[in-house]
Amino acid sequence: VLGAFPDVKLSVMEKELNEEDIILIWTDGLIEQSDVKGRRFGENRLRTYLKEHKHLSMAELTEQLYQRMIDFSRRELSDDVTIIAIRRKGTGLSSPDMGVVRGKSMHRSQ
Q1: For the chain, how far is it from start to end, CA to CA, in angstroms?
Q2: Under 8 Å between Cβ of 106 and 54
Q3: Which of the 8 DSSP states describes residue 40?
Q4: Which of 4, 14, 28, 62 lies 20 to 30 Å from 82, alpha-carbon distance?
């Protein structure tokens, strides 16, 4: 969570990334998007997708993940969705493999 709640207390964790490790950042709209029966896309579907598609470029991974969520729900977005994926490539300061997808909700609250 980045900047969502002013009084939230977060812990700090450090993790060394190995070559080919992926960092995936998403907004709640991705996992909370539901289908016509009210089932959420959820973290389990997200984990399964990542395990099966980690070989893709990060641009392909984010675009196809977004499309998978749209195909699952078969309805307009109920919330904005942003997906950011970064893969560590090589050592040192070499350019990472990155992908970003944004989807805007058409839902308007009154």
Answers
A1: 26
A2: no
A3: B
A4: 14
pTM: 0.79
How remote is the C-alpha of 37 from its chain's centroid? 22
Q: Is 52 helix (H, G, I), strand (E, B) or coil?
A: helix
C-alpha atoms less than 13 angstroms from C-alpha of 89 in its C-beta half-sphere: 11
User: For residue range 39-83, what is the model confidence (pLDDT) as tens digits?
Assistant: 999 999 999 999 999 999 999 999 999 999 999 998 888 888 999
The position carrying tokens 């990334």 is 17
Q: In whole angstroms, what separates CA 81 from the centre of its chain?
A: 8
Q: Which amino acid is at 64?
A: Q
Q: Which parts of 1-110 are beta strand (E)?
A: 22-26, 81-87, 97-103
